Amino acid sequence: MKRTILAGVFGLMALPAMAQEAVTYPFNGTFGDATFAVESAILDRGLVIDLTSHVGEMLNRTGADVGSDVKIFEEADIFLFCSATLSREVMEADPMNIAHCPYGVFVAEREGEVMVGHRTYPEGEMQKVQALLDEIVQDALE
């Protein structure tokens, strides 16, 4: 029995990674306004932001170290969080949905344009997470 389970786990690990895409919306305002709006939209739902990843700062700081002078973003942050209720629901349906947690909403400024968005998720139970992320983004855009 243990060998069968182990073989199944290794079989899942061998599957090719599915490409995920991003859903983005233009934000009519500054990067600071957008980050405030996203943070507020997350917190207003009673969710806790576990981490704010300052990806734009990291890319700008390390560009020269990796031999690049390309500025990808003026600024970019990702807000990472979970929903205990929704995470339990999607992981009870399929424990491997753990691979998608935590969930994130990003804000980025590129070439003077600010955008807000999130990644897409696979069909099935994870569409509930995608719907939550889109609700958060839509609230931030108002």
From TrEMBL:
Answer whether the UniProt record assigns the keyword Signal to this protein: yes
Q: Which residues form the DUF302 domain?
A: 73-117
Which UniProt keyword terms apply here?
Signal
Q: Which InterPro entries match?
A: DUF302 (IPR005180), TT1751-like_sf (IPR035923)
Q: Which segments does the entry list as coiled coil? A: none
Q: Which Gene3D superfamilies match?
A: TT1751-like domain
Superkingdom of origin: Bacteria
Q: Where is the signal peptide?
A: 1-19
Q: What name does this protein carry?
A: Uncharacterized conserved protein, DUF302 family
